[in-house]
């Protein structure tokens, strides 16, 4: 069996990065971001990147690093909030943005992994989302045609992996990661824990190892809280 385990995030990305490439990056807000791989992409200095991600991290975190270094040419995303740099670059015309409804974004990625070039959805009909796209009527209802998304590289954050690349995700960190793992020509996964072969319950595996090319133990696991809400404790008489 091919060895999929790599010693460091830098080693796991060796030979995969080039200018103008398309990268899928898992994560939703601050949850499930490939925190260890993103800094290595920044360090390599590749430019003109198209990045597919639900959002671009948050101020000072995640994909924000690649925006700050001006390595990203275009974002394909569903959410711009919580990232002032993302907003500024887009509004100034410095950054291209393909804004996609969140469910449509997830389905476009899933379609890319499943080999489905296009599909129809009601979401976005009659809005700027549908501009320039074919519209078809099914059972008297209009649907817009959306196309698949695929990438040269998918960078993923998982909780556990075995040496064959079978993955488990933890709670909301699952988000876009499983779909993206299927839609990259090469999929690199950083994991919090690498377990022995056969240690994962087959019924609990979220992504089969056939989709995973390289695995590395994550070096950054900050687990930030995006919005902390507290309340005063109740005083019991």
TrEMBL record:
Enzyme's top EC category: transferase
UniProt KW keywords: Transferase
Gene3D superfamilies: Glutaconate Coenzyme A-transferase (3.40.1080.10)
Keyword Transferase attributed: yes
EC number in record: 2.8.3.5
A GO molecular-function annotation: succinyl-CoA:3-oxo-acid CoA-transferase activity
SUPFAM superfamilies found in the cross-reference section: NagB/RpiA/CoA transferase-like (SSF100950)
PANTHER family documented for this protein: ACETATE COA-TRANSFERASE SUBUNIT ALPHA, KETOACID-COENZYME A TRANSFERASE
NCBIfam families: pcaI_scoA_fam (TIGR02429)
Protein name: 3-oxoacid CoA-transferase subunit A
